[in-house]
Design a protein that fits this description.
17% strand; 202 residues; alpha+beta; three-stranded antiparallel β-sheet
């Protein structure tokens, strides 16, 4: 005796139901097409094609948003770097103004120390002045301030200002600094004041 066929009949209604069940994955119910603002056609193939188009458009839009956010992040990073650089430059300029006001004091120390002491008392005064000058220069060096090398160095117009040059018949070698008449200084690689020097051939 032939057993009756128990295979369930596949109807249009069951196919439409399978389309609505696309949101059910691993037993977890996700948002429905209605929740996403989509009207799915009854035909499964058309529904899948619609979902793929929506997915492609959503991914393209997400990529555009990501690119925009990356540009905003890069602009902000550039702005932050520019602000930090401006702050550093402002601090350096403020420090430079203070140091420029101290240059006459340093010149006075140099002038006083150029004289040889004539007595023990003058020797003690000189030692005190040398100590004070050294402490002042050490404090300034911590801010990037330093004297420009001069005597015996090749003449460099960027940092040396010549007040006299070699006379006629003095040779034709490289120009060297022969004497320093006023000390020059730089700060963070920027010339605060060039050295006043005399120039001679090597």
């Amino acid at each position: 005796m032939t057993s009756p066929d128990t295979t369930p009949e596949v109807t249009d209604e069951s196919q439409a139901a399978s389309v609505e069940d696309l949101a059910i994955l691993d037993g977890e119910v996700g948002p429905t097409a209605h929740d996403l603002g989509l009207e799915l056609p009854d035909d499964p193939d058309e529904a899948i094609a619609l979902l793929l188009r929506e997915l492609s458009e959503a991914r393209q839009e997400a990529g555009e948003h990501l690119e925009m956010l990356q540009r905003v992040a890069a602009d902000f990073d550039n702005f932050r770097r520019r602000v930090e650089r401006d702050q550093i430059e402002n601090v350096e300029r403020a420090s430079q103004r203070v140091i420029e006001r101290l240059l006459p004091t340093l010149d006075a120390f140099d002038a006083a120390l150029s004289f040889e002491p004539q007595s023990p008392a003058e020797e003690k005064i000189r030692e005190g002045m040398e100590s004070t000058r050294s402490q002042l220069l050490e404090a300034l060096e911590r801010e990037g301030f330093e004297p420009i090398p001069a005597v015996g160095e090749p003449f460099d117009p960027k940092v040396h200002e010549a007040v006299s040059g070699p006379g006629e018949g003095a040779g034709d070698g490289d120009l060297m600094v022969g004497a320093e008449l006023r000390r020059g200084y730089i700060m963070h690689g920027r010339v605060i004041r060039p050295s006043l020097v005399t120039v001679e051939h090597a």
